[in-house]
Amino acid sequence: MSIALVILAAGKGARMQSDLPKVLHEIAGAPMLVHAMMAGQALAPERCIIIAGHGADAVAGVAINQNSDAEIIIQSEQLGTGHAVDQARASLADFDGNVIVLYGDTPLIKTETLAALNDKLSHSELSVLGFEAKDPGSYGRLITDNDNLKRIVEFKDASDAEKSITLCNSGVMAVAGPLLFRLLSEIGNENASGEYYLTDIVAKAVAHGASCKVVRCFETETLGINSRVELAHAEHIFQTRRRNEALENGITMPDPKSVHFSYDTFIGRDSIVEQNVIFGPGVTVETGSRIRAFSHLEGAHVSCGCVVGPYARLRPGSELAEDVKIGNFVEIKASLLAEGSKVNHLSYIGDATVGARANIGAGTVTCNYDGVMKHHTSIGEDTFIGSNTMLVAPVSVGQEAMTASGSVIVRDVPSGDLAIGRAKQENKTWLAVKLMKKLRAAKATKKE
Ligand code: UD1
Ligand code: CA
User: Fold this and answer.
1) Does domain 228-419 have CATH number 2.160.10.10?
2) In the predicted model, is pLDDT for residue 150 greater than 80?
């Protein structure tokens, strides 16, 4: 059965206290909306529809960037979750598969859970994702009869007896498409909020003799984000989940709590991630590498057997081949470092290619920016760049060449040559001692 995802993302999220639409606030480096989309897209849906309203342009931009086939439908007035889903009616007129409704502000939902919800539709017409709430607060309550869902009552409309129910509505629902829109045309807004509740379709379905079921999940998965406090809490849950996955997948972390992952971080088996390492988006670390303490990586590819850090920074476009060593206080950006090359201390390598086994001395800087444009530096295989070399790009240093420490290299260095680009040293006989004497004498006369 084909699937259409309908993701509700029109709400304002006033409690976020933000100019950014709520669903664009990030968890682990990706907007919440992207998390919801990714969870749903893993089921290979035929359609992915985003209902946008507040900040629709920004929301649409993020959605299309994540999935160029996503369809954006504008709900210009937010009249409730039922009204929101109904905006997809025309677009899904010919769709006869299952519709899964998700919220853009519920980022921790797992693909397996959505799959279970969808599978439930092979024995029923409607399935709702529910959870046992520790503190059911203002969630909608699921009114069940054994295994069957009878209706959902919103907190504001619930009786005291109904409020004491702890089985709550997550908001995620799966319904056969044609039935969904038939039921939606039957709901009204005569309730405590004056809204069209999606949840009202359950009682309508039951009245038509349709079978409605509940699929249960853990409360953490259905955490809906309404405030920055909840956003931080969701981040915490996400990080805990990822750390545990990493440990289970064969990554050593002496202090997992201090390591921060992005939504897309990939780390290979038998790698070691030391304390206080931060992974921004787009990082892959292959097997058997060691990321040492206090390093920050983003948009970087680290091949097998590398050592990075402590205190290293890999910025987007850093590509490390096997057995590369990056040491303390080294920054790499948009550069390719070939196998076995080393940049061990206090250096900046940007917009560069570094050949195999090249050794870059302490304090080397690729001067890549002239104030207007960026330029490339090319360093050949087996080169030796002396400490404190300034490589003024565009420039290239050939294979097996050397630069003398303290050189400012402004012209290409041919392979095999030694480039010395600094003032020539002169030694003045006994001048140091004479000079000191003179200075001390000057100071003494000044005091008198
Ligand atoms: C909803 C459920 C409630 C459930 C809870 C779980 C209804 C009526 N109630 O309540 O049973 O326990 O979620 O979190 O469905 N949205 C739109 N357009 C609208 C209204 C909402 O896009 O017109 C979006 C919001 O941006 C949000 C989501 O739908 O992402 C949920 O809406 P919200 O108003 O937060 O519903 P709740 O009151 O939390
Ligand atoms: Ca909500």
Assistant:
1) yes
2) yes
